[in-house]
Structure formats: structure tokens, C-alpha cells
């Protein structure tokens, strides 16, 4: 590794103790910058790498709320505004009991490069809370969201920082957050949040965008090898927003997703996932994948292990970070898996990535490229809000597909340019970095 990259990595590790996922995300990016720093040493000047690895602003706040029993609960809220070189900070809010500063920083750091890849003029940020929405009533979720926004509202705006959803934050939560923002500011500022309801500023295809984009990316990888997804079996993890629409798009393209999961276990359905049933259970009843298996004779439920044990052609992780370890990756490769397109953020451990990258028959797309359709369509939502227009489903999906194709092609072109043909990791990291770094150099030392 270039000595400058090594130094930045060591200093960042020293300055951020106890933040393993942040350092994991950082290491993966910095390692892949070696060829560009060798060729363009100016990117290592002006403290650029030191500034890139330090968030511009980190906000941590108390979120008190009253539960249905009348007891006071206290959670912690976060917003990390990582980098605004390309535009307003943009990135989702995650509500999950595992959320801490380390998790939000890893997500915010990834978001910088992902957003740059979309070419939509958006900077990188992320936020959330250790609030666990599981088992909470609608009233409790509303009171939590209102309290969370009562602090967050002073830091966000359609030209400064535009949050959206992530794990645990879907249409219901965005609705409560938007309502409170409007109440506190007295302004109907549609572009301050994305993932809004269709009747009040949301965009068609935003709900579907991340999963659809993930599978489109897998399709482009297959086409690049002269193949298609038709007839291929897929393992999908998760059963939330990204997983459901990855399954939908895979089915539309003639592939057969046979798994899904949640934090209680996973399902193998030999007939292929019945999407109507899964949507009914997950989107309407807020149920579990075990309920799906109980209602579907062709499906079996497993409360241990992971979906990656099932022999498939395509792996579509769509749950959470580090959900594919080295053994899982080896099992996938041994069973003949040819395509891995990440819908979740950093779902593969570094060892798993190494297994995929060194398998000659596997095309591997990192999350920051393959799941960029979500944030890209959020930028389309902002565009519609700013122009007070409303796109059709067909047009929004066309735009999404064009964007995913461009990201795919940019990754391959950059990988080729830097002597790593076919390597989507180098391609994504260097393409994103170059765009952000050029803007940062132009803006001076700030
Ligand atoms: P949802 O909350 O809708 O769904 C998350 C799914 O993953 C649920 O099935 C959940 O199960 C499961 N899951 C979450 N955490 C864990 C865990 N620790 N162990 C096992 N299962 C888990 O979230 P999304 O679908 O929106 O997000 C999924 C992934 O995609 C995340 O990594 C997110 O960062 C990424 N992503 C999302 C985007 C979006 O537009 N929504 C955009 C880009 C990336 P359970 O219900 O049991 O918790």
C-alpha cells in the first residue's frame, strides 16, 4: 500500500478506537486507492485523505419519549454529515438496536462514494438511533419519531442535509418525521426528506429502487459475460424493503429467488418465493418469515444457519452488514454461485470478498455500486420536488435503469483504466473517490 494511505489508515484507526465497522469500510476503500495515488500523487496532498476520513460534522443527541405504559424511554440519536463536496449530505436513517456511532460512521463513509457514483450531485451522510421498532405500537413509533425530529430538524434542509429511510425506517416513519419537521418549521419543504408517501411528494419507484437496482446491476454483470439471469436461482437475505423488491425484479427477469430471512431465521422455498404472500406478511401484517413458512407448504423454516447454504447461481444479500463470512462465501462458490450483487451495505466480510474476488467464475459487485439505485432515486424525488413535477412509474424506472447501467459501465471502465479489468471493487471506489477528490481540491482546504 502507498505509504500515505498506510499512514492515514493508522492515524484514523488510532483516532477512532472501538469502531470496527467504520475501520473495515475505510480500509476497503483506502486499499483500492493505491493505483490512483501512485498515478496521481496530488490526491494525497492538501490533507485530502485526512479530510476525507474525518466527518465534517457529527451530531449526537438525546431522544426522550413516553411509551404506551406511561414510562419514559431514552434513546440516542445520530446524524453524521460526512462530506458535502458534491452536494447536500444525503443518506438514510437507521432505527435498530445495534446502532451506535461506529455503525453510522461506516454507513456515512460508504455513502460518500456511492452518492458520487450516482452522479446526482449529492454528498454523503447517515443517521439513526438505537431505537428498536420491533414490537412497538404505531403510537410509540410516532412519539419516538416526533422526539427524534425535534432535535434533528435544526440540522437538515433541502439544500443542506436530506435524510431518507434505511433499516427500521420505512414509509410510516418518514411520514411521522416529515409531519414533525413541517410542524416545527412551519414550512412544507418537500425536499427535506425522501421516501415520502406518493400523495405528498414521494416518487414512484422509490420504494422499489434499491432492490430493483441491485438486480439490474446483476443483470448487467451477466450481460457483460454474454449471459442473462433468466432461469437462474437466487438466494436473497432479509425480507424488508430491499429484499422484497430484489425478489420482485428477479422474478420479472425470469430468475427464481428461493430464500428470504429475518433476524429470527430463514426460509427455503423450493417452488420459489411467493411474493404476494411475503408482501402480505411483511408489508401489511409486519409479521415474520416463519409465518410465511407456516402458510406455504413448499417452504421450510430454519432457525439457525444462513441462506447462503442453499446452492444458487446468484447471491443477493439484502439484510445487514457482515452477513456473509468467509465460510458462507466458500460455500456459495463451491455450489457454483456466479454472481454476487450486494443490496445491503457491506454485507460481506473482507475475507468473504477475497474469496469472491479470487474465484475465477464469480462476478462480485460491492454495495456502494449495486445498491446505489435507492439513493439515486431519492435524488430523482428531490428533482421532482424542486420542479413540482411527477414522473410516471415507467419513466422513473427507465431513469433508474439508465443510472444503474451508467454506474456499472463507469466501474468497469475505471477498473480497466487502472489495470484491474473486471474488478467492480476497484472500479467503484476509484470512480467515486475521483469525483469527490476533484471537488474537494477545487474547494480548497475546508
Ligand atoms: P428493512 O428494515 O426494510 O429490512 C431489513 C431486513 O433485514 C429485515 O428483514 C430484517 O429482519 C433483516 N435484518 C436487519 N438487521 C438484521 C440483523 N442484524 N440480523 C439479521 N437480519 C437482520 O431495511 P432495508 O431493506 O431498507 O435495508 C436492508 C439493507 O439494505 C441494509 O443494509 C441497508 O443499509 C441497505 N440499503 C437500504 C436502502 C434503502 O433504500 N432502503 C438503500 C441502500 C442500502 P428483522 O425484521 O428481523 O430485523
From TrEMBL:
Keywords: NAD, Nucleotide-binding, Oxidoreductase. GO terms for biological process: glutamate biosynthetic process. One of its GO terms (molecular function) is nucleotide binding. The record marks 166 as: Important for catalysis. Substrate binds at residues 90, 111, 114, 165, 378. Transmembrane segments: none annotated. SUPFAM superfamilies: Aminoacid dehydrogenase-like, N-terminal domain (SSF53223), NAD(P)-binding Rossmann-fold domains (SSF51735). NAD(+) binds at residues 210, 241. The keyword Repeat does not apply. One of its GO terms (cellular component) is cytosol. It comes from the Bacteria. Residues 203-444 form the Glutamate/phenylalanine/leucine/valine/L-tryptophan dehydrogenase C-terminal domain. The active site is at 126 (proton donor). Belongs to the Glu/Leu/Phe/Val dehydrogenases family. Homohexamer. PANTHER family: NADP-SPECIFIC GLUTAMATE DEHYDROGENASE 1-RELATED. This is Glutamate dehydrogenase. It comes from Mobiluncus holmesii ATCC 35242.
Amino acid at each position: 500500500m502507498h505509504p500515505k494511505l498506510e499512514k492515514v489508515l493508522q492515524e484514523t484507526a488510532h483516532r477512532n478506537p472501538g469502531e470496527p465497522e467504520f475501520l473495515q469500510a475505510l480500509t476497503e476503500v483506502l486499499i483500492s486507492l493505491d493505483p490512483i495515488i501512485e498515478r496521481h500523487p496530488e490526491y494525497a496532498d492538501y490533507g485530502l485523505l485526512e479530510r476525507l476520513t474525518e466527518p465534517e460534522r457529527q451530531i449526537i443527541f438525546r431522544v426522550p419519549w413516553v411509551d404506551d405504559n406511561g414510562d419514559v424511554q431514552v434513546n440516542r440519536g445520530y446524524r453524521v454529515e460526512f462530506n458535502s463536496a458534491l452536494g447536500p449530505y444525503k443518506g438514510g436513517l437507521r432505527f435498530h438496536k445495534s446502532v451506535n456511532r461506529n455503525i453510522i460512521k461506516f454507513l456515512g463513509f460508504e455513502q460518500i462514494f456511492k452518492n458520487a457514483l450516482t452522479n446526482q450531485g449529492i454528498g454523503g451522510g447517515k443517521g439513526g438511533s438505537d431505537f428498536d421498532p420491533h414490537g412497538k405500537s404505531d403510537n410509540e413509533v410516532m412519539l419516538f419519531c416526533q422526539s427524534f425530529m425535534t432535535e434533528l430538524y435544526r440540522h437538515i434542509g433541502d439544500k443542506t442535509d436530506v435524510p431518507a429511510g434505511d433499516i427500521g425506517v420505512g414509509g410510516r416513519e418518514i411520514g411521522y418525521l416529515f409531519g414533525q419537521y413541517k410542524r416545527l418549521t412551519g414550512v412544507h419543504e418537500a425536499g427535506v426528506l425522501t421516501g415520502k408517501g406518493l400523495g405528498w411528494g414521494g416518487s414512484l419507484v422509490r420504494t422499489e429502487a434499491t432492490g430493483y437496482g441491485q438486480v439490474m446491476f446483476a443483470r448487467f454483470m451477466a450481460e457483460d459475460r454474454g449471459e442473462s439471469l433468466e432461469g437462474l436461482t437466487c438466494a436473497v437475505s432479509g425480507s424488508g424493503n430491499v429484499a422484497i423488491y430484489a425478489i420482485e425484479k428477479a422474478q420479472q427477469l425470469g430468475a427464481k429467488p428461493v430464500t428470504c430471512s429475518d433476524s429470527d431465521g430463514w426460509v427455503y422455498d423450493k417452488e420459489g418465493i411467493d411474493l404476494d404472500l411475503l408482501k402480505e406478511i411483511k408489508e401489511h401484517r409486519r409479521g415474520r418469515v416463519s409465518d410465511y413458512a407456516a402458510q406455504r407448504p413448499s417452504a421450510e423454516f430454519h432457525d439457525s444457519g444462513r441462506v447462503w447454504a442453499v446452492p444458487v447461481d446468484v447471491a443477493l444479500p439484502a439484510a445487514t452488514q457482515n452477513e456473509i463470512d468467509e465460510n458462507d462465501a466458500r460455500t456459495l462458490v463451491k455450489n457454483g454461485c456466479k454472481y454476487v450483487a450486494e443490496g445491503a451495505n457491506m454485507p460481506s466480510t473482507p475475507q468473504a470478498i477475497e474469496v469472491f474476488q479470487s474465484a475465477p467464475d464469480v462476478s462480485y459487485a460491492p454495495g456502494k455500486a449495486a445498491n446505489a439505485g435507492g439513493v439515486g432515486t431519492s435524488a430523482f424525488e428531490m428533482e421532482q420536488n424542486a420542479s413540482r413535477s411527477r414522473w410516471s412509474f415507467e419513466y422513473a424506472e427507465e431513469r433508474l435503469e439508465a443510472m444503474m447501467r451508467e454506474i456499472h459501465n463507469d466501474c468497469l471502465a475505471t477498473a480497466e483504466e487502472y489495470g484491474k479489468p473486471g474488478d467492480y471493487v476497484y472500479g467503484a471506489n476509484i470512480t467515486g473517490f475521483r469525483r469527490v477528490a476533484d471537488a474537494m481540491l477545487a474547494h480548497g482546504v475546508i
